[in-house]
Amino acid sequence: MIRHEDVYKIGYLGKPHGVHGEMQFIFSDDVFDTTDADYLLIELDGILVPFFIEEYRFRSEQMALIKFEDINTEEEARRLTGSVVLFPRKIAEEKSESLSLSQIVNYTLIDNKTKKTIGKITGIDDSTVNTLFEVTTLGGQELLVPANTNLFESIDTSKKIIKMVIPEGLLDL
């Protein structure tokens, strides 16, 4: 059984397209394409269910039309509308040459200068020009930290730790 900590969000399913089960797939990570994935995971009633990809075609940089096996009508596709699409971390890490920001969610963030643990990266905020990590500190405080790859010092995928240079004064806010 696939566990939630072994996957990460790469997008969500939009409305059906046509009457044969095809639907919009809005994604923030194209790992499904770069790894030539056979399936994507969708959470249904708290259970991660694999949906095998029959075909897909890109409509823009962040949207594709996707057809899953055994989803053959508009009604079946409509039941999946709004569902979060997840991808196995292990496959992404094995087949990708570099990690995407989405894959870093649930990693522990460490300030490389002070060597102190800042907290856990709980999400990505890409609603502004500058993408930010949403971090929950050990004390439960919520922080926004620039997700600038130039600040990364090291990433340990086996321990799920990222060490980065935290801009001076950021933690004092």
Summarize the SSE layout with pairings.
Layout: E1 7-16, E2 23-27, H1 31-34, E3 39-44, E4 47-60, E5 63-68, H2 74-78, E6 84-88, H3 89-95, E7 108-111, E8 117-125, E9 132-137, E10 142-146, E11 152-156, E12 161-164
Parallel strand pairs: 7-12
Antiparallel strand pairs: 1-2, 1-6, 2-5, 3-4, 3-6, 4-5, 7-8, 8-9, 9-10, 11-12
CATH class bucket of the largest domain: Mainly Beta
Taking pLDDT < 50 over at least 5 consecutive residues as the criterion, the unreliable ranges are: none
Order of helices and strands, N to C? EEHEEEHEHEEEEEE
Instruction: Summarize the biggest pleated sheet.
Output: 6 strands, antiparallel, barrel
Query: Structural class from helices and strands?
Result: mainly beta
How would you describe the shape?
A: elongated
Number of helices: 3
Strand content: over 45%
Name the CATH superfamily classification of the largest domain: RimM
What is the strand arrangement across the widest sheet? 1-2-5-4-3-6
Q: Compute the gyration radius: what is it? A: 18 Å
Strand runs, count: 12
Subunit structure: Binds ribosomal protein uS19.
Domain RimM N-terminal: 10-89
GO molecular function: ribosome binding
Keywords: Chaperone, Cytoplasm, Ribosome biogenesis, rRNA processing
Describe the 3D structure.
The protein has two domains: 7-96, Beta Barrel (Elongation Factor Tu (Ef-tu), domain 3); 101-164, SH3 type barrels (Roll). The protein has helices spanning 31-34, 74-78, 89-95; strands spanning 7-16, 23-27, 39-44, 47-60, 63-68, 84-88, 108-111, 117-125, 132-137, 142-146, 152-156, 161-164. The protein has 173 residues and is mainly β. The chain contains three helices and twelve strands; from the N terminus they run ββαβββαβαββββββ.
